[in-house]
Amino acid sequence: MNKPASGQTRRDVLRWSAAAAAVAGLADRLNWTTKASAADAVEIVMDGHVHVTNRIYWEGIDPWTPTKYGWDFARARAAGVNCIIDNIGPYGYWNYNYTPKQALRLIDTLLRFSEAHADKMAIALSPADARRIVGSGRMAVFIGCESGFDHEGDPDVLDAFYRLGLRTVQFATQTGFNAFSDSALAAVQGGEKPDHFGGINEHGRKLVRQMNELGILIDIAHGTEAVQAQLIENSRAPVVASHETVKAVSGAGLSDEVLKALANKGGLIGIHGAAAVVGKRYRQWMASNPAGAANSGKAVFGMVGYQPSFTRPPGDHGEFIERMDREFRERWLALADWKEDPTALSSLPTADEWAEHVDYVIKLVGADHVAIGLDMVAGRSSVPADPTGYPDLIAALHRITTPENVRKIAGENWMRVLGQAKAS
Questions:
Q1: Percent helix, strand and coil across the chain, each rounded to 5?
Q2: pLDDT tens across 51-69, in order?
Q3: Do residues 219 and 243 touch, judged by C-beta distance below 8 A?
């Protein structure tokens, strides 16, 4: 039903890419396995907020082949990344039936792709798994979910997704509030009030307890400040803000109060890479250029906030979802067509500006509570501009802090919180 832009089916892409992997993967294995002889001796370089499965699903790409835009395994691995949390995003599919349906489609896509490229990657269910995978010279991939695993928050659905490998969940959605939590983006994406519940409701608190019991890491990103504070308070395990910035540094992101509460619970913030939230100079440019500011987020907001332009008719037997898929794919593919305003180019953030956020968190709450969470997608400017730039971030970290702190920030902090997500 869902054919990639090339006209091939996703199953064709997975089948054919498996054959190519058997040949190309040999050289990769010979190269990577010389770098470490034991899993616990391998240095973890990890991005805790990646979107690659959506690209496989909607574009039909093989991300082990370098692409011209967005995030892919090939360029990230060449840049030193060996572990990620891949956040599937059922954007636009926001109701009881469509959200879990789209989440299942995406998880199945990732599982099949991982199996087809087992010589280069594997799904990690725990930090020990991840270290073993990385130690074998492959990319370790945790499955996360952004924008909703199920907008009703059915506990049985959550349990089923955990069994399929889901290990992190962004509690609030981008597409309006769900049945258990407000969303900071509700007004922007769904035209709804961001304070419908005043945070999370009782059902939300029950889901927090279930996530703690299962060992699903709770992500407070995109929640209102009330949601974030209540998630931190109600969780018995550390929680994370997987892709955020620091309000005191750029004017956008987490407040000092939330950062302190997050750290007191043992959690962390993954520093975002989008120019519109991380760069002080870029944000100043946005403030003086309203048209440019609108353009900076147009493509991404248009995709994330998609709603069908038609209604589901009575007696529908699949025609609605086929049309919805075609329409949403157009929004996703439009990300690649986005162009930055030429007058903004001199204001794009640098790796050192990104590291200012890290430095602030270190000084406020300590180096144990900050990590990398770039949220790199096509359709907007970011730092780094593409996955080849991870070494620039590591170099910037070395300019502001100690080697041991860099080791934590580059990956060990993510390992710690994933290992502490289960709390009885």
A1: 50, 10, 35
A2: 999 999 999 999 999 999 9
A3: no
Residue-level pLDDT at 258 = 98
- What average pLDDT score do residues 358-362 get? 98
Tokens encoding 341: 């305003």
Distance CA(367)–CA(365), nearest Å, equals 7
- Concatenating the DSSP letter of every residue in 321-358 gives HHHHHHHHHHHHHGGGG----GGGGGGPPPHHHHHHHH
Q: Has residue 260 got a pLDDT over 60?
A: yes
Extents of the domains making up the chain: 43-419
The two beta strands, 139-145 and 121-123, are parallel
| Cα dihedral 290→360→45→38 (10° resolution) | -170
Rounded distance, CA 296 to CA 57, Å? 25
Give yes or no for a contact between 21 and 117, defined as CB atoms under 8 angstroms apart: yes
61 touches 118 (CB < 8 A) = no
Alpha helices per DSSP H over 265-318: 275-278, 280-288, 290-304
Looking up tokens 């990344």 gives: 81
Give, in order, the Cα–Cα distances in Å from 26 to each of 13, 76, 323, 371.
20, 19, 41, 32
Among 3.20.20.140, 3.50.50.60, 3.40.250.10, 2.60.40.790, name the CATH number for the domain at 43-419: 3.20.20.140
**What does the pLDDT look like over 239-249, one tens digit per residue?**
999 999 999 99
User: Which tokens in the block code for residue 174?
Assistant: 């981008």
Q: Which residue is associated with the tokens 């979910």?
A: 145
* Contact yes or no for 28/119 (Cβ under 8 A): yes
Nearest to 206 by CA among 150, 155, 144: 155
CA angle 340, 344, 350 (to 5 degrees): 100
